[in-house]
Every structure is written in structure tokens, then in C-alpha cells.
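Minutes, project check-in
Item: structure for the 211-residue chain
Input as provided by the requester:
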Amino acid sequence: MLAVALAVTAWGYFHLAAAPGTTARFDQSLAVPIVVTGLRPGYEANYDVRTASVVVEAPRNGPDLRADQFRAVLDVSDLVDPGDHSVHLTIASPDVPIKSISPGSVIVRLDRVEDRAVPIAFDYTGDRRGVVVESASIDPKFTSIRGVATELAKVASVRVEIPIPARPAQVDEMIRPAPADAHGETVPNVQVSPNLVRVRVRFVAAGAQSR
């Protein structure tokens, strides 16, 4: 009986493995970068998961498959409302069977991107007892800020920081304006344009009269 079983097994191997159209395959795991498609103009999409784990059936005798032959896609073309959305992950790939995809969906935060014109304010820092500001000017006086609506809502002002000198002096410099919240803290992820403005300040001795 053992001889019969071995004979049947050998027959099956040689006939089925060598049968026309039968290809030996093995499972191959790939880390595929995740991309977003269908994003509407004026919106920004953010997501924490950046790669998908994809298992495919690859031909055993064929060339190795590469991650750059695949695309893990989050289609957000149907999304309009800002906020968190669970988006199904799909794989665009060569003609190979896909066995598994992980994760199956990804949380995507959708935000509106907005622009706003804001006047530039002076932020004097340091000891004010020795000198006073006689004159000050900024060119240009307004700046444009751009970012997602949730970040722009935090911006209370755009400021240029001017250190107060210990003695009378004149300042004529190109300074980078910074968006600040109500507590004076810089608001990140907000673009300011232009990124440099010309600042002219004349400091005179306290009590001195301008001429």
C-alpha cells in the first residue's frame, strides 16, 4: 500500500506540475507607498499611515516584483466636508493576484486651504527705559497668510520682532514676519508672503525731542 501511495504522489507531481498553463507561485510581501487621488482644488489631505503591506502571488520562476510597480490609492474625490474620513484603500498593480492588503482603510483628515491679508505689527522686545521709538515704517504694510482653515483661525497677528537697543540707533533691515496667536506664540504650518519685509525704525534717547 505504501508503494501504491508513493506512486500516486509521484504521478500527480510530474503530471500536474508539468501540466500546460500551470505556474508555480509563492507569496511575496511588499511595502507600497500610499498616495491620495481626487483631491479637490483648495483642499489639503493629511494621513498618518504612509505605507500599505501588500501580499501578492508572484510566479516562482518569474522576475521579482517591486514596490514601485504598485500604487496604494486613497480616492477622496467624493469628499467635500472638512474633518476625518475613513477611506477605503485600493491597489493598482500589474496583472498579479492580490492576496491581502493592510490596512484596508485609512483615516484621512480633509481641510480647506485659505488665504487672508493681514497687517504687519511691530513687536518690540527688550528694555524700553533707555530709548523710545521716534519713527517706524514697514514695507509692505500687509502680508498674505496661507494655510488650512483650522490653523489660520489661530492667527491673531503677523509680527516683526525688533530688539530695543541700549542707546539711540537706526534700524534698516529685512526681517521675516511671523504669524502669532493671541498669546504671542508662533503658529506653525502657516505660509507668509512675502517672507521678508523692510523695517525702518529710529530709536532716540528717552526724553529727547524729535527734530
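Outcome recorded: The two ends are 119 Å apart (CA to CA).
No further action items on this chain.
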